[in-house]
Amino acid sequence: xxxxxxxxxxxxxxxxxxxxxxxxxxxxxxxxxxxxxxxxxxxxxxxxxxxxxxxxxxxxxxxxxxxxxxxxxxxxxxxxxxx
Length: 83
Description:
By secondary structure, the chain is low in regular secondary structure. The chain has one domain (1-83): Pectate Lyase C-like (3 Solenoid), CATH 2.160.20. It is 11% helix and 0% strand. It is globular, with a radius of gyration of 11 Å.
């Protein structure tokens, strides 16, 4: 799934983007600067090397996601599940 498709699904009301729900979510190295994914389930997603600068991930589930070398500068991760 590419970032455009992910955003379209989010805007349509979808919130579960875990690998269990949508197989193969891979956003490695993508530029998601300023994206808003409040309360989204991105568990087990590959977000390695992804630019999440100023992204709003408040209350999102990132449990088991690959966050290696992801850029969270100025990102809102309040109440996000990272562990």
